[in-house]
Amino acid sequence: MSKQQWVSRNAAIALSVLVAAGCGDSGKDEAESAPATSSPTTAPVRTASAPADACGWIPAAEVAAIVGPLEGAPGVVRSLERPDPDPYGPVCMYPLASQPRVGRGAVLLQVDLSGGIIEERVSGSMKEGFRRVIQAGTPAEGSPAPAAAPPPPGWDRVGKHWIGFNSFTGRIGHVAVSAMALTPEVPPEKTAALATRVRDALPDLPFPLPRDPQLEALARAAGRPLDAEPTGPDPCALLPAEQAEEVLGKLVVPPYRSAGDAPLAVRTGTSCSYFTAGHHAFTITPHWNTGKMIFGMAKGVGGVVGSVAPDDTAAAADTLEGPWEEAAANGTTGQLYFLKGDRMLEVGYLTSATDRAGAVRLARSAVEKL
């Protein structure tokens, strides 16, 4: 991970921690501040089954059919950057039978259900900066910039990692799949084929929020139930399915409670996600009180993060008109923030089937009910 990516990711993590700290209201406080239109708790929806670990997304035999014979069982490792054994890691390492002359005989595979948006936007901004620098030194001054090549069929965006050999990363909706060789002797078409095969095997349904065994152990020790009942108002009451479908298209499942800005289903979630075909998901997160404080923190951290991967999102957000008093955005994550009194709506649309204009249209409908 580059220094800029590290800064961006940690700034975004800081924002989520600050927002969580500002949202430590009790269920009673949330219920008292619920809108009059609040509906009963959202019913559970049909979800896909996630594997027990990072090596369960695809059988090892299928990996071998694509990249070549394997030697021994695959193992879960810490990350693409640090392929050290880690039982809780998000990456699977497949050891190759033949030892290469250069590098290490292994292929890494990662499925990121959060889409890897921060890394994607930072990487895209860096590439755009390099392109402008190169163009500034060419004699074709004033000529239009070349259009970006469209992604291969089935992907919303593709790219490469700054580490490893012949890496491939592709995103469809909120799911990103990365395949990387630790030797240049595995050709790029094989890593691309591996990622594509994994993508095609994914059920086109929401995934549940993965259970955390360490947090569950703490809950048991404290005598807290593992499956608590939802508290506070239903976030899905702000945007009915019919209104969402006018912008997003047909929903695969009804709107469902989800975890923060990730469209992962959890019955106690404080967000609501709207899932359409191709793993596309639109997510809203209402903050029923302390909105001014949360908005100030989000706007401040968003400005810091946006300086790493600047675009026009943050600047344009201030000019958006609607039933809110202020609007802001995070230049890296793309999250939009809308403040109305002491309540705030956070909107995540980059992994959805709409653009910013569509996201703002849906935000107007939701903010009117805050």
Description:
The chain has helices spanning 3-22, 27-32, 60-67, 117-136, 188-201, 213-221, 241-248, 291-306, 313-317, 356-367; strands at residues 75-77, 91-95, 106-112, 157-159, 165-172, 175-181, 256-259, 262-265, 271-276, 280-287, 326-329, 336-340, 343-348. The chain has 370 residues and is α+β, with helices and mostly antiparallel strands. It folds into two domains: 14-49 and 208-367, no CATH class; 54-137 and 144-201, 3-Layer(aba) Sandwich (Protein Transport Mog1p, Chain A). The longest helix has 20 residues, at 3-22. The chain is globular and about 65 Å long. Mean pLDDT is 81; it is low at 1-40, 124-134 and 304-318.
Profile the largest sheet: 7 strands, antiparallel
CA radius of gyration is 22 Å
Number of domains: 2
How many strands? Answer: 13
**Widest sheet: strand order?**
8-7-9-10-13-12-11
Low-confidence stretches: 1-40, 124-134, 304-318
Shape: globular
Average pLDDT: 81
Percent of residues in helices comes to 25-40%
Percent range for β-strand residues = 15-25%
The N- to C-terminal Cα distance equals: 39 Å
**Global structural class:** alpha+beta
